[in-house]
């Protein structure tokens, strides 16, 4: 028998969000350009474990993935009174910026998927100068809801199993069975009402239609990558959004669905490697020229 210890390190950081202290769990590996990764609705940072353990990427990037409050190993704040969880654009944006500040990250790259991809667009609109590059996976300014969330948080419904069933069709048919089941397992373990609360941001509060045209990709490069099998954020949704953003880079990923980084990590790697390589090259050139990128 053989054993292996992965290079990923897990820690907690205490972050003030909305005037309250939050104990945020994060995992990291590598050194170099900070790369902050945002998980999908109702999930946690386990979705990024393959990227975190990628030796080649870790040689040039400090890869960091954190659990949003109420998700994974990040509990609700200590004074939470049981009020229904509901994610808003303002709260989501504040959380990401506060986390980056707490770790003293210097011009990080932020990559998010699904709700994380949507909030990346908002970061590009309002805070682009704080970031080196922004990467939106399965990202668009708006998607018409194809689901009903009203019944997701009920005592007679196993929310986790329902959430996993709901999103299972978003995984591409080519995805390996083990990766597919691992992706869905995290959904089965989500906290009560968390998936529903995240989708409030996704389907109501996070509508960015009419705002994305303000994004200036000369200030911060924007990359949008969407799986061809994603029917939640379709390739058409992403290309429509990018049409309003001069300079946005769009890639439609073959044989991938809504969870590219976890459902088929090796296939996702073929698409994200050139993006990270371009970011690294640009940063290296800027450093040689004495310009802070």
Write the layout of secondary structure elements.
Elements (H helix, E strand, L loop, with lengths): L8 E9 L2 E10 L3 E6 L10 H4 L2 H4 L2 E6 L22 H14 L6 E5 L1 H12 L6 E5 L21 H10 L8 H12 L5 H12 L16 E6 L7 H8 L6 E5 L6 H4 L1 H24 L5
Helix pairs in contact: 5-6
Structure, described:
This protein has 293 residues and is α/β, with parallel strands linked by helices. Helices cover 35% and strands 18% of the residues. It contains 10 helices and 8 strands. It has helices at residues 49-52, 55-58, 89-102, 115-126, 159-168, 177-188, 194-205, 235-242, 260-263, 265-288, and strands at residues 9-17, 20-29, 33-38, 61-66, 109-113, 133-137, 222-227, 249-253. An 8-stranded mixed sheet has the order 1-2-4-3-5-6-7-8, with helices on both faces. α4 (115-126) links the parallel β5 and β6. α5 packs antiparallel against α6. The longest helix is centred in the last third of the chain and has 24 residues, at 265-288. The N and C termini lie far apart (47 Å).
